[in-house]
Input
Amino acid sequence: MKMLHVTIQTNKFEEEMDFYEKEVGLTLQRDLRPAKDLVFFANAEGETCVEIIKVPDADNAGNPYLSIGFKAEDVEQKRERLMEAGYEVTPMISPMPDVKFFFATDPAGVKVQFM
Output
C-alpha cells in the first residue's frame, strides 16, 4: 500500500504553501483553487503529497506526538536557513554519530523533521 498524502488544515493557508514550497522544496502538483482552497505539494507527480486545506477556524494543526520528516541535502545549512527566516527550530539532535536531525514548526504548528 502506498501512502498518498498528509493533510494539514490551517488558517495560515498562504504561509503554509510558502513553507512547503520555499523551505521544504516541494512543488505544486495539484491546485483546486478557486473552487476550493486546497492544494497538493510533492517532490514529483505520483509521490506522497502534503495536502493543505484552508480552514478559517483551524488555528493550530500541531500535535506534540506527530511530525512529518524530510531529508535535507545539508541538515545544518537547512537549520540555519530556517532560523534566519524566523521559524522555531530545535537544537540539532544526534543520537548516533552518523545521524543528525532537528525539528522546525511550520506556520500551522506542525512539527517538521529535517534529517
